[in-house]
Amino acid sequence: MRKRTSNIDRKTSETSISLSLNLDGEGKRSVSTGIGFFDHMLDLFAKHALFDLNIKASGDTDVDYHHTVEDVGICLGQAVKEALGNKAGITRFANVSVPMQEALANVAIDISGRSALIFNARLDSKKIGDFDSELIKEFLEAFTVNAGLNLHVDVPYGENAHHIAEAIFKGVAKALDRATRIDERTDEVPSTKGIL
Fold first, then answer.
1. What SS3 state is found at 142?
2. Domain with 120 in it: what CATH number?
3. What average pLDDT does range 26-33 have in this prediction?
């Protein structure tokens, strides 16, 4: 089986990002974006997906965190897409429910080659520490567009914004882990079109 790895480097006037990904890893990770809460979310994402992930990012965080968060989403999406190659043999679909104390996140993924994000989560708190909670959706939007995923995130209940965010990131991690796994019964692209 070929190595399902990728390396992405992106430099703009707003951010500089270097990222490496191994879909068939062990959850080894090193994440540094200069944004503490975001690092925490990406760290647990890699741990629960069992992806080996290294991210070194810097950006204009003196303005706000938007550019850094969005551009990391772009790079992570590109890395997943590149590592998957032609997607032959992958499971393609997955869904999970992840509780985090009083919050529950239901996440479904289709690695379809087409992007769509359905984000049904109320984050009543505008901030999680110094992190703008609206950036969770911005990150996922950038990620899905660049990875070519259908991603549905539904949080039917939850009160604490940190718990809601953590349930979402863990849910995306577990669903993506399952959807990217190789199904040993086939080596074909999982589509009647023959291409994804």
1. helix
2. 3.30.230.40
3. 98
